[in-house]
């Protein structure tokens, strides 16, 4: 259906191309290097968060973890003694088109597979969604995570996201550094998801932070071409990147922020390389279920998706092509600059606070 685009001569970039000798080394435009663990394997099962359970501060936001909750309910269950006993947590949704949620999760799962294929330490949390009808379905609960809105309300008035990290993980601890690293890697991954898929309605009730510090997004009722507001499009930034999020990273001049930029570049180049895998899913779904709200723009949304993933064209053939490393760096930095503390993003958060009390 689509010929895979070709990457132009990498020697045009002043950033060294990836090789077997430096595949774990990230280089920012300023020349600062980031070294990822050489034994990183994205295909391994993600480690349990047991380390985050143990010796957690008394001021922790999570008074009970999902593991502890399972054990408590199992002890009270008359079937708890059975070896096959298991507690499954799901949300039963009605009067809501879960088909679009399931479609969005297919795309997110595909992007997660692309990151793993390229062995990038980007973190996404695909979860199970099953549409049982046009207006109903089942959604897996995300364990050990709270919305930013819930966290702020638990912390009290004027609380900021960075306050959660210091209270949950302690100040200047190894656990805090690991949580900030988790936040950085997940923030970069979900920023790419929100840009490529144009995920909207990103208020703080739809963004979660888990017990390990990962950020994650839920509720995909608006993506690709539809948006809340009935024509008034508040959210026009490429993705949501608030001052509070950057503060968790340590500020725009911090090493973590530079790592965030570089992870976004690497992730975007991986998405470009495997663009067909994402585009074909959207095309097939459009042909079979074009009544989904996300297809309100019609066939034009396919072209808009291609423009976001592969915005550059070859001068002679006019065919879409992959970016060089330098071009990708400049492109991603432009997206970040446009998104960072965007006034429209802040206006939408203010609107949600005034209308629905979402902090």
From TrEMBL:
<protein>
    <recommendedName>
        <fullName>1-phosphatidylinositol 4-kinase</fullName>
        <ecNumber>2.7.1.67</ecNumber>
    </recommendedName>
</protein>
<dbReference type="GO" id="GO:0048015">
    <property type="term" value="P:phosphatidylinositol-mediated signaling"/>
</dbReference>
<dbReference type="InterPro" id="IPR015433">
    <property type="entry name" value="PI3/4_kinase"/>
</dbReference>
<dbReference type="InterPro" id="IPR057754">
    <property type="entry name" value="PI4-kinase_beta/PIK1_cat"/>
</dbReference>
<dbReference type="InterPro" id="IPR018936">
    <property type="entry name" value="PI3/4_kinase_CS"/>
</dbReference>
<feature type="domain" description="PI3K/PI4K catalytic">
    <location>
        <begin position="67"/>
        <end position="344"/>
    </location>
</feature>
<feature type="region of interest" description="Disordered">
    <location>
        <begin position="1"/>
        <end position="50"/>
    </location>
</feature>
<dbReference type="GO" id="GO:0016020">
    <property type="term" value="C:membrane"/>
</dbReference>
<dbReference type="InterPro" id="IPR011009">
    <property type="entry name" value="Kinase-like_dom_sf"/>
</dbReference>
<feature type="compositionally biased region" description="Polar residues">
    <location>
        <begin position="8"/>
        <end position="25"/>
    </location>
</feature>
<dbReference type="InterPro" id="IPR036940">
    <property type="entry name" value="PI3/4_kinase_cat_sf"/>
</dbReference>
<dbReference type="Pfam" id="PF00454">
    <property type="entry name" value="PI3_PI4_kinase"/>
</dbReference>
<dbReference type="GO" id="GO:0046854">
    <property type="term" value="P:phosphatidylinositol phosphate biosynthetic process"/>
</dbReference>
<dbReference type="GO" id="GO:0004430">
    <property type="term" value="F:1-phosphatidylinositol 4-kinase activity"/>
</dbReference>
<keyword id="KW-0418">Kinase</keyword>
<feature type="compositionally biased region" description="Basic and acidic residues">
    <location>
        <begin position="41"/>
        <end position="50"/>
    </location>
</feature>
<dbReference type="GO" id="GO:0005737">
    <property type="term" value="C:cytoplasm"/>
</dbReference>
<dbReference type="InterPro" id="IPR000403">
    <property type="entry name" value="PI3/4_kinase_cat_dom"/>
</dbReference>
<keyword id="KW-0808">Transferase</keyword>
